[in-house]
Structures
1.
Amino acid sequence: MTTATHTFPSPPPLVAEQGLCAAQWGMVAFLVSEVAFFSTLIVTYVTFLGQDTVGPTPAEALSLPLVIGTTICLVSSSVLIHGAQLAIEHGRQRLFSFLWAGTIALGIAFLVGTAVEWRELIVDHQLTIGRNLFGTTYYTLVGFHGLHVTGGVIAMTVVLGLALSRNVTRDNCISAQLVAWYWHFVDVVWIVVFLVVYVGGRGGGL
Amino acid sequence: MEAIHPGTLLAASETATQNLSIFAPASPAAQSIQDLAILTGAIFALILVLVEGILLYNIWRFRARAEVTAEPAQVYGSQPVEIAWTTAPTLIVFFLILAITRTLWQAKAAQPAPQLDDHALFVKVIGHQWWWEYRYETYDGRPLNFTTANELHMPVSETGQPRRVHLTLESADVCHSFWVPRLNGKMDLLPGRTNYLMLETELPGLFLGQCAEYCGDQHANMLLRVIVEPPAEFERWLANESAPAAENVAVQTGREAFMAESCVNCHRIRGTPAEGTFGPDLTHLMSRQTLASGEIPNSPENLTDWIHNPQTTKPGCLMPAFDLSETRLEAIVNYLLTLR
Amino acid sequence: MSLAPPAHPFENATHDGSGRRFGLTAMLHTWTTSVDHKQIGILYILMSLVFLVIGGIEALLMRWQLFFPRAEVLAPNTFNQLFTMHGTTMIFFVGMPILIGLGNYLVPLMIGARDMAFPRLNAFGFWITLFGGLLVYFSFATGGAPAIGWFAYAPLTEQTFARGPATDFWALGLLISGIGTIAAAVNFVATILAMRAPGMTMRKLPFFVWTMLWTAVQMLFALPPLTAALVMILFDRQLGAHFFDVQNGGSAYLWQHLFWFFGHPEVYILILPVFGMISEVIPVFSRKVLFGYEFMAAATVAIVFISMGVWAHHMFCVGMSRTLDLVFAAASLLVSIPTGIKFFNWLATMFGGRIRFASPMLFACGFLSMFVIGGLTGIMLASVPLDFQLSDSYFVVGHFHWVLIGGTLFGTFAGIYYWYPKMTGRMLSERLARWQFWLLYIGFILTFGPMHVSGMLGMPRRIYTYDPDRGWALWNQLTTLGALIQTPSYAIFVYNLVASWRNGTPAGDDPWDAWTLEWTTTSPPPSYNFEELPVVHSRRPLWDAKHPEDPDWQYE
Ligand code: HEA
Ligand code: HEA
Ligand code: CUA
Ligand SMILES: [Cu+2]
């Protein structure tokens, strides 16, 4: 074997790999775990749907108009944040900050809407977390979603601060991108919650 | 079961060893499970001998020897070999699934409805922390409607004449599990759910088991006793249990003491004002061989100790001590002793 | 700025000659503020070892109580607290952190990276895991630990049945340490997917790294449901919610599903990295390349996905329909196929090799000979009707200790003996290793073998006492005896770790003549790991370097 050989075989050239960077993979992994978390809460919600012996039921307590409003806020905020990302990719920092601030405003509007809705549920329908299974599962699911929206708004505000101090640029927009992914995720979760809790869970139909 | 004896000697026990082995089946269900156990055990042994054999061969044959220094030939893998040792276990798994299906359909049947002359006993079993409530519902289609506790009596089956016992399992508090190994596998009692288990045996006698799902402090002493009797004897037992409690003027003071104490809040004695349902039904307490869910033999001394302070016998149990005076305690015990 | 390596983490504090006190505070400071993956890895391992001793002492107390029938060593409630804490400790604060710790130390080194992707998140993960553990143990100070069993079946965890704050500490502690675990998983995924050395494609990952990747994926799927379920417990207990409050329509059954949806994948989280370590050790000590890498890799993925669909095999006795029973039984049996593939490939790797029985290989053989037994008893448990008898009996206790010790622990020991020289620059004592191995091997069989027998003789688990007439005494006495034989082996191990760290023979960079990247750098590695990022062409870069005439990449 080891007779002094002349040329050793030389390896094939390396092919540069393309893919997400570490931060992006990190966010993807984190969102996977978030999917698992919300799936659990949603499955639990569905399991207990209609199992209550005392009211109020979802059909009695939940009213749609307000929620449709907050839903529109959240969905359109996803559009805005997407626009913001396109803007920064084209180097238009002013437009970015403007759209980004709009997203934050819509997120806050959503939270305000939720607060109004909860006030109504608690005051007018006496629905608390301890009232019945509906209250238990509803506040847990919607509450955790709201918590995530809050987290998103805080993260976006931080990014806005960076943007205003000109630290978000075309070549340095990873943080904005990751927050945008997170925001899209929060939005998708809301659409599922909306369909499960407000459409399907109220006994079908709008 | 020879192997057990040294252990019992070590433990210096006076009582004969009871058999709770899953390899001493006394019912068709337990029998079919044992058959499956033997089958899987055999497959287990085969695979084990194969794997350990190859391992030992490798260790012995390919141990590094000082004289050889060259690296051995590098073998990167082989597709046919991989396919072979994927296929073989797949076949075994497939075979096992077939065997499991067969046994599963034998051991776990659906619950029938009671019918006249069905020779079947229907009992509702309710698990409590840490005792068993048995509500006898029907036998042979006749309604029974009495409640007893901790010792389950059932009739023996005869060849050609099965007398099945259909248990409806529920829980009053936390999860428990009904397990009498020689009669059947276990089945859980979950609050908020209703489960079903069938018992059937041609062997008269006493069968032991115990709660098999952790249920709090005294899970270890939530013992099960199933007494399998010939039909006539079982009928006698039924007749006795169905009757209200015996009245006996000789123990009138004890009866009054019992009714005046808080006992009545937790215990029922049918035919008296005692209507509690939190604790075991005491109507025919003396027809039971044991107290406190099988923990201690039912003797007057044990009964006295129990009522004096249940917490020394069964620490943590849900019956408190009442600090009864000596005489009052004695009176109550005397009264309870008449509840045959 | 010069890149001169600072003295290695152990040295800079103790050997700086500037006075002991200063050295100690400096050391504490370095370790507590470190964001270096190697130091964090070691912290994880040390934490696990401390908890292993605590959990082991809890086990010994239980064994003392069970030595005689109707013994009165421990109060019933104390016994129940002990098995709850023992199980919780061993699973959450020994098994998981020790594997995460090894992964933390090794993954960047093995893929040729300078650190994990998110060093600060990494430190956060460790400290929060430790904090979770302390929180669970803090319950002792509040009048007693929880007595709910490690899977904490509802409604025993409701305020009605578990008064006092112990259960809240338990839930909060696990919740917090679970967040730490998720953080670690995120870090592993990002590191492995984005920070590999040039040329190290996904198909050329060292096998341990491959298994860590899938372990992390499994954590991402399995832990959040547990987190959610723990939140539900806390809401029930603190806010009056009704998730598991059966009186108000809550469900005991739901908890079981949620818990085991986590709980079953959890046990594979505890074994997959071990499969990885074994797949590193066996080739090196057999002097052969790992047989059938691709099949092994595919089997790993198969295990991850199948194992997410088998959870209800822990619930065969709750009265599911026969069809559901069968589905979950079949899925559980399917796991044996990829696991079998692994086994046969390991055996094939040994076959025709030149096997050196250094301590890592000794433990690897211990693993091979024992884990298969635990796996096969698992198959018996998965055979539904048989599980009707065996479930919640000591047979199950026998099964899972067999896989957890015979599998996870033996494999971890193999890994620690293998990589300790890299971590410290010193070899562990082979003589002590042999003592440890044989005491553990014999003690282990003697402890957990008889448990299968007592289980088949009808002994349920989690009982603090039993009647003398049951015929279980002998088997329990053998078990206790076995536990006593095991105990010194752990002490020897700890002694070996400590003594060899000071006095062990120096190891050099590559004491085992191994093939993966971590052996190219110094032992212990400098804080930046590699002076120059390595370039990789095959799964065994060092084989290529050592055998330039016949490199691996020709065959892959
Ligand atoms: C490291 C952890 C680990 C591992 C790897 C396993 C592996 C397996 N386990 Fe185990 N298990 C636990 C840890 C683990 N388990 C724990 C902790 C519990 C109890 C929790 C509690 O209740 O407290 C438990 C409980 C448990 C139960 C529930 C028992 C009950 O409570 O009623 C069941 C039932 O199906 C089960 C099955 C299996 C199966 C089928 C495997 C399979 O993965 C095994 C596969 C391996 C092999 C089969 C061997 C190698 C294969 C071959 C050589 C090929 C040829 C073989 C065949 C064709 C069969 N396990
Ligand atoms: C990785 C996991 C793991 C490990 C390693 C162990 C290790 C051991 N286990 Fe554990 N066990 C579990 C996981 C584990 N267990 C789980 C999950 C449960 C279920 C809990 C539940 O039901 O809720 C359980 C339950 C369980 C029971 C059942 C309790 C019951 O159902 O009533 C028993 C009973 O004997 C037991 C015994 C032992 C013993 C004797 C050891 C021994 O191997 C331990 C040996 C170790 C030591 C003895 C360490 C001592 C070392 C020293 C003292 C060193 C000296 C110190 C210095 C020099 C500094 N275990
Ligand atoms: Cu009832 Cu255990
Ligand atoms: Cu499992």
2.
Amino acid sequence: MTVPVETGVAGFLARYAALRDRLPGDSTIRDAAAESFRATGLPGRRDEAWKYTDLRGLGAAAFDEPVSVAGDSALLAGVPGIEAPRIVFVDGSYRPELSALPPAFDVESFADTPDFGNLARPDREPLVALNTMLATDGALLSVPENVDGGTVQLVSIATNGSGRPIAFHLRHAIRLARGARLTLLEISVGTGSYFHNPVTEVHVAADAVLTHIRLQDESHTAFHLSTLYAEIAEHGTYDSFALNIGARVARTEVHARLAGPRSVTHLNGAQLLAGQQHADFTTVVRHDAPHGTSRQTVKNVLTGRSRGVFQGRIEVARGAQKTDGYQMNQALLLSPDAEIDTKPELEIFADDVKCSHGATVGELDAEQLFYLRSRGIPDPAAREILVRAFLAEALDAIVHGGARAVLESSVEAWWERQAA
Amino acid sequence: MLQISGLAAAIDGKPILRGVDLTVPSGEVHAIMGPNGSGKSTLAYVLAGRADYAVTAGSVTFDGHDLLTMEPEQRAAAGVFLAFQAPIELPGVGNANFLRTALNAQRRARGETELDAVQFLKLARAETKRLQMPDDMLKRNVNVGFSGGEKKRNEVLQMALLRPKLAILDETDSGLDIDALRIVANGVNDLRGPAFSALVITHHQRLLDYLVPTRVHVLAGGRILRSGGPELAHELEERGYADIVAEAA
């Protein structure tokens, strides 16, 4: 017997009504989120923050409950990664039998220890409200004071086990205590049609350093809409890089708050899109303390009819003197039908700051192309060299060799798919 | 080897070359001198095949080929090499990889076997040593963070590896100190032989002390106004171009 599944907002609310009493954690938080979501619905293009990203396809889709599948180790075959501890989720559920937990610190699951944190804003972000309403699982990583947590992989695999579209809303929290260190390699992959809607909360205490490298290589019929909130205390660093290759519609939304003096954040990334893909990189950096540094370079390579979006906002509060903010968005359009929309914003209330932003959009540089050809390199090969160089420069921001190699292989695979 | 007849060229509709006639036989080195804006660099770019220059009249044959109908990469494979006045930076492209890709592309175009990484590196290291360049220049990105002199030497390194039949040096001597100048001149002298010719564009007679030309030509106003032996360069150094330009007017 098949139960008809409702689509869009009604479908998600019906799911919540059915699951409410079985969901982990504080139901007053969930109820409030459900109220917000009911009031706003999915964001539309009238919302300034969603002007360039159209979720009508998501609103028209119906999603099934993920069915619990056995954690077959074959699922890990073909998933990119390195030799390091890993925390694995399959169709939105933690799979201990596929995971290898880090020795240096504790990992808990949201299902066992539900914690909605204090940074997420379901009242402002409809997708965060949706996640808050329906989250069932996620990873909670807590690295104690002065502990080097090494490198840990956070993996999400969507299996399309039921053969019907599913939705899952992972809820992660990464907490680094004073002086702690961690490199987190986050990988999202899958097959079939699904909706992955993760929300992550990051706390970097004083003198702590979190390096967060993300590879989003979801199925090309999937939605991947992620929201991350980070708060960085005095002299702490949140250093991130996100590579977006997959999904039909993707959004990487980051809210980073430099809460303590001399804190640092890097929100770098690259998007490689082909066909009908759409990927949106939206960030808000809030400088709330003096001597903070934020750096951001996001590169897009767009082919086919793909569309890239970059929205970057830097806010500098009145007391955040000596802020040093830099933001650069670059796009290479390799087809006449590809499109990039870029919207940098600066909002500065302090008078002694250094903030700059820039955007370049274009085709390959004619002088560079001529230089290569004048050395005997045929035109198509010369073009490929220049596009690869553009991407290599972006990936150079990743200091961790193993993680960079994972992303480089994904870029290589992308090239091979384009050539095929 | 190279025969230029009545060559006229324009950029953005503005005529720069107005009928250049020049023949460079095999085995000879010809210098082109002339005041700023006379069309020297335009001539170099047109010979190498830069697309933004429009050839409006004349012909260029090289080794029996109609050079003007060939793509830049075909010209390179046929043996034409341009040392750029302002070498282009290629961020994200390693120098060794660039050089090997170029060399192998030319070898492939000529039906020769390609060099593997080991063969190539051996060759490249020998050339960098001969040109007194640090080894790490092969590891760095092409021309990125290079000093002016290093960029020029990198051009000479490319020339040494690619072994062209015709080298066009566009002010390769500018910005070089006397030691670097000697190294660059020696780089060209080493290639000299019956099957090699060069067109050396320069402002200064100094380079020609080390790289003694067979002929010297004065290019002004888009035409060759005067040609002579190496002594012409000395004369120009003393008296400038004014007399020649006035004579032609």
